Amino acid sequence: MKNNKWLKRLVVLGSILAVLVVAFFMLKAWIFPPYEVPVGTGEYAVLEQTFTWEDESRIETFTDTGENRALTVKIWYPETEGTYPLIIFSHGAFGVIDSNYSTCVELASHGYVVASIGHPYHAMFVEDVHGKKTYVDMDFMQRIYADNGEYSEESERAVYEFSLEWMAVRTEDMHFVLDTILEKVQAGEVAPFALVDTDKIGLFGHSMGGATVVQIGRERDDIDAVIDLEGTMAGEYVGFENGYEIYNNAPYPIPLLDVNSSGVRADINQLMAEHPGWEYVNDYVGRNALDYREVMFMDAGHLNFTDLPLFSPVLAGLLGVGDVDAEECINNVNEMVLIFFDYYLKGEGSLSDIKAEY
């Protein structure tokens, strides 16, 4: 009898487990429906490799193990000989190394070497070349959401201080990756490094990644052009006074493309109306830059500048998209990015092909 009772229990538990497994895969299929991996429209077939590099100059501050910070980098490159401009991508908070997979592949297919950085503990997850997964830091996540509340001088100062902390991590990551790639090129390593033209370097990033690349573009003299996909340029903060950040008043030195959605622009305009005398940092930078242009995507949301709406419409809808057709929007983003880099890194095409509004 006891054996029969345990058998019945096992059957019941097995049935429950089976239902849970089926439910999981049904939910997974709903969250991540069939997704056709983007291919580039350029003339080159695209190869990719992933690397994990340890920065021996930095201790990982998100853990207490004393380990060095390690960066995983995915690189897309043309399957051909020659040398090509280098482009580095930085994802947003809670993004992933493949956040803009389609953009990276599109660029590589047109003759670029493109590297995307997975920022550990800022990314939703990063998987290194050994299979180790590092997930987002919960304290970092809580701070992000806590800082998106109502304005007060105290909260604004906290945002300012956190921004400096986060930007330090991000910019050090990007300096390290750039320097590592350039060292490998100099050392004569094989593809993809053998394909890199070190005299032509561009950067682009989304959200916090956009802020990162803007700061790197100011700090280094080997960067030729920068694209900020809806990132508040926190690296331009140089102080805090009377409840607001103080901005860097030195003209931004290299070509800068600032890409925003109409929804975010409306929010910014409302904030400026509510706080007379305050100017959005991106507008301030643009007004004083040597070469700046802004592009507006109508009816788009923050996540429409990434591939997330393509491979998980459900998650993207929860996190923030607009009414725009997601595939059409990211295709327009990719075309715009290509035109901009072609002009400044290859001397090809015309900036007039970039619309003021999409």
- Say what the CATH topology of the largest domain is: Rossmann fold
Structural class computed from helices and strand pairing: alpha/beta
Number of helices: 10
Which architecture name of the largest domain does CATH use? 3-Layer(aba) Sandwich
The gross shape turns out to be globular
**Approximately what portion of the residues adopt beta-strand conformation?**
15-25%
Task: Tell me the helix content.
Answer: 40-55%
Largest sheet: 8 strands, mixed
Q: CATH homologous superfamily of the largest domain, by name?
A: Alpha/Beta hydrolase fold, catalytic domain
Strand order of the largest sheet: 1-2-4-3-7-8-11-12
Task: Please give the alpha-carbon distance between the first and last residues.
Answer: 72 Å
Number of domains: 2
What is the CATH C-level name of the largest domain? Alpha Beta
Order of helices and strands: HEEEHEEEHHEHEEEEHHEHHH
Primary descriptors:
10 helices, eight-stranded mixed beta sheet, alpha/beta, 2 domains, disordered N terminus, single chain, 358 residues, Rossmann fold, two-stranded antiparallel sheet, globular
